[in-house]
Amino acid sequence: MKRFIYVFIIAFLFIFISVSSIQDVFAQEKKFREPDVLYEPSPQHVVELMLKLANVHKGDIVYDLGCGDGRIVIMAVKLFGATGVGIDIDPIRIEESRQNAGKAGVMNRVTFRNEDLFVADIHEATVVTLFLSQSVNLKLRPKLLRELKPGARVVSYYWDMADWKPDKQIESDDDPIYLWTIPAKKAVRKWLEPCPRSQLFWGEIPDFPLSHP
Ligand SMILES: C[S@@+](CC[C@H](N)C(=O)[O-])C[C@H]1O[C@@H](n2cnc3c(N)ncnc32)[C@H](O)[C@@H]1O
């Protein structure tokens, strides 16, 4: 009986260590996907302006796509009473964000996810903040239209969305901050009507420039 228990414990430890090693390999692999944009934090006064421009308030769910050290969602929670989700492809940034949220005492109102912003589920966001690049913004447009609800606000520091004209624009130290509001789905379909490839229904938004009405 004793022998059976020893064999059982050894077998259990062996399986446990093997599963942990496989998980480590997957975690390592995540690190090998290069970020589309290098890390550079938005200045804190810009973060505040971005959140004010989006009129963030209690009840909002703020998503920062490429969240860096988590400063945008942490401020959204602390100063504006929202809840926040930060997404970053770099696990080091996610760890840093969690530590910062802990220090700020807001861990219960924020979530940080180590994901690629292009595949992350963002449908619940009422506000999306971006500090990425123009090409990444352009690639994101179909996803924003497809997943966000009408009325959701999108704010981008520094980078615009080409022919999507912003609803509002302000400057901070000569750097622009842009605001767009996701229109009603009917209106989005209308945007697609003049497009040659627009034999589409809602949910099949193509990856090419769409004009803001
Ligand atoms: C310029 S920093 C902005 C950080 C933060 N949003 C801020 O304003 O302080 C861009 C961040 O995007 C992240 N990033 C780049 N490509 C990404 C991707 N495909 N998915 C998720 N995060 C990405 C980088 O790791 C980096 O932390």
Report low-confidence residues grouped into runs of 5 or more. 12-22, 193-213
* Biggest pleated sheet: 7 strands, mixed
Helix and strand element order: HHEHEHEEHEEEH
Beta strands, count = 7
Q: What is bound: which ligands?
A: S-adenosylmethionine
Which percent range describes the beta-strand content? 15-25%
Structural class: alpha/beta
CATH architecture annotation of the largest domain: 3-Layer(aba) Sandwich
Continuous helix count:
6
| Name given to the CATH homologous superfamily of the largest domain | Vaccinia Virus protein VP39
Number of domains: 2
Question: What gap, in angstroms, lies between the N and C termini?
Answer: 77 Å
Model description:
This protein has 213 residues and is of the alpha/beta class. It folds into 2 domains: 1-31; 44-199, 3-Layer(aba) Sandwich (Rossmann fold), CATH 3.40.50. The protein contains 6 helices and 7 strands, in the order ααβαβαββαβββα. It has a 7-stranded mixed beta sheet with strand order 3-2-1-4-5-7-6, with helices on one face. Strand 2 (83-87), helix 4 and strand 3 (110-113) form a beta-alpha-beta unit. It is globular, with a radius of gyration of 21 Å. The N and C termini lie far apart (77 Å). The model is unreliable at 12-22 and 193-213 (pLDDT under 50). The structure holds S-adenosylmethionine.
Comma- or semicolon-separated keywords:
7 strands, 2 domains, disordered C terminus, binds S-adenosylmethionine, Rossmann fold, globular, alpha/beta, 213 residues
